[in-house]
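Hi support team,

I've been running sequence recovery on a batch of backbones for a student project. Most finish fine, but this one hangs at about 90% for roughly twenty minutes before it completes. I'm not sure whether the input is malformed or the queue is just slow. I've pasted the structure tokens below so you can try to reproduce it. Let me know if you need the job ID as well.

Thanks,
M.K.
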């Protein structure tokens, strides 16, 4: 069996909170119990929101908690040319993408109109309605040549027709047939950025030899997209393990704005790493009435 390689991949847009402490500790202990390897990766492609000082602070917090990882720490912002060549150009070459000129406002209006038209439609669904999928390609090319902003979207139906049916394995919930109904045609790159979260995470997990992607269950649906990208790019898929999320006393999921629960604040108040991790454990238990199954070693039949 392959050695377990896990990772924790923070986006340095703020200080880490209890939810991050739980996710990082979960990945670290899962690898250590299996005598595997643990990596930290900085997901800083969003240059407008990510800050270097948060990278330092995030790494200091993880170190203070007792985590140790392999060096060097990979930074996604240094890999843009690689994402372009190893992923974006290949997907465009496969004919499973299209340029999208829609603004956020146009997309919102279209979704609202569709929700209004469909009686009993689910108003919370915000999947891109595919306006640019049918748009005349010459017209689109002219607009782009004229300087228009655009995104590159993955044509989900076409991509899945290319790969055929796919399955991925969650180590707790078992085999999951790929279905893209929760995401539609996701953005995989933009005019000024040759990648997106979905593309970079797949390329990097594969490049770093991650065999078990542990992360919060808020990313469960995204894994369908990731499995598809692995298949399109001819990469060997890992297994995934989606754990529960930390919640505050009112049952709301923690966010970076919950600064009173940041690791740093708790540390400054004099708490020890063990006390902070116990708080994280308690917060994750609040996140669900169901007990969390213990992490299990990845199965090999996905
Ligand atoms: N960078 C993501 C975050 O901070 C995590 C992505 C992942 O684990 O796949 O939420």
């Amino acid at each position: 069996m392959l050695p377990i390689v896990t990772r924790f991949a923070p986006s340095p847009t703020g200080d880490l909170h209890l939810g991050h402490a739980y996710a990082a500790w979960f990945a670290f202990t899962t690898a250590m119990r299996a005598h595997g390897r643990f990596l930290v990766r900085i997901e800083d492609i969003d240059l407008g929101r990510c800050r270097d000082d948060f990278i330092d602070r995030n790494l200091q917090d993880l170190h203070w908690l007792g985590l140790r990882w392999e060096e060097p720490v990979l930074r996604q912002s240094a890999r843009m040319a690689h994402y372009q060549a190893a992923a974006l150009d290949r997907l465009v070459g496969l004919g499973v993408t299209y340029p999208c000129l829609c603004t956020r406002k146009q997309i919102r209006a279209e979704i609202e109109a569709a929700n209004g038209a469909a009686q009993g439609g689910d108003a919370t669904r915000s999947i891109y309605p595919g306006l640019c999928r049918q748009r005349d390609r010459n017209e689109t090319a002219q607009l782009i040549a004229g300087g228009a902003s655009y995104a590159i979207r993955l044509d989900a139906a076409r991509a899945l027709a290319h790969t055929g049916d796919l399955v991925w394995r969650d180590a707790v919930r078992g085999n999951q047939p790929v279905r893209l109904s929760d995401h539609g045609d996701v953005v995989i790159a933009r005019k000024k950025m040759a990648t997106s979260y979905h593309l970079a995470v797949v390329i990097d997990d594969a490049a770093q030899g991650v065999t078990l992607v542990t992360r919060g269950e808020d990313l469960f649906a995204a894994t369908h997209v990731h499995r598809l990208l692995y298949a399109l790019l001819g990469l060997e898929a890992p297994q995934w393990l989606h754990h529960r999320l930390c919640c505050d006393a009112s049952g709301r999921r923690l966010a970076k704005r919950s600064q009173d629960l940041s690791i740093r604040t708790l540390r400054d108040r004099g708490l020890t790493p063990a006390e902070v991790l116990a708080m994280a454990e308690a917060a994750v238990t609040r996140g669900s009435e169901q007990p969390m199954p213990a992490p299990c070693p990845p199965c090999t039949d996905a």
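--
Follow-up from support: It reproduced on our side and the slowdown came from queue contention, not your input. Confidence is low (pLDDT under 50) at residues 290-302. No action needed from you.
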